[in-house]
Prior knowledge:
The chain is α+β, with helices and mostly antiparallel strands. The protein has helices at residues 14-21, 44-49, 69-78, 105-121, 148-151, 156-172; strands spanning 5-11, 27-35, 55-62, 87-88, 91-92, 98-102, 131-134, 139-140. It has one domain (5-171): Peptide Methionine Sulfoxide Reductase, Chain A, CATH 3.30.1060.
Amino acid sequence: MAEKQTAVLGGGCFWCLEAVFDRLEGVHSIESGYMGGSVKHPAYREVCGGATGHAEVVRVSFDPEKLSFGELLEVFFSIHDPTSLNRQGNDIGTQYRSVIFYNAEEQRRTAEETIARLNREHIWDASIVTAIEPATEFYLAEDYHQEYFANNPQQPYCQIIVAPKVKKFQQKFAHKMKA
């Protein structure tokens, strides 16, 4: 068995990313948190205020024998808009930026190659603005953010924003869903 790998991705609200990656075959665990800012141990309210420089991210632990980093990125790019700078829908600010924090040179190369290919394929009307940055310290988000969609499926944001992304994933990647 291959050693687990870790990816850190930001694409808007971490609740959306977590809800999708929870269902992806090969994913062992997901943690919502913050990365890329200047404040040590930021709290959610600080991050939401936009002054810390952190992005809302998910740290995904996965089995590379079942799910490659490239396959993980395919799902990542399909569930958010990587062409909108510092925003996803009504969530606006650098904390909602599209970003890949790489842990190894191989991840950086794969991210660059994936973005170049997707731009050549013209899937979106605009170019991808997803940042590719070296991973920095990961700060775990507060407990109530973990498994938020699973624990709060009736919450309006979950019904209006998260559930459609999960449904889109289930339709497009049915063959990659956990049993």
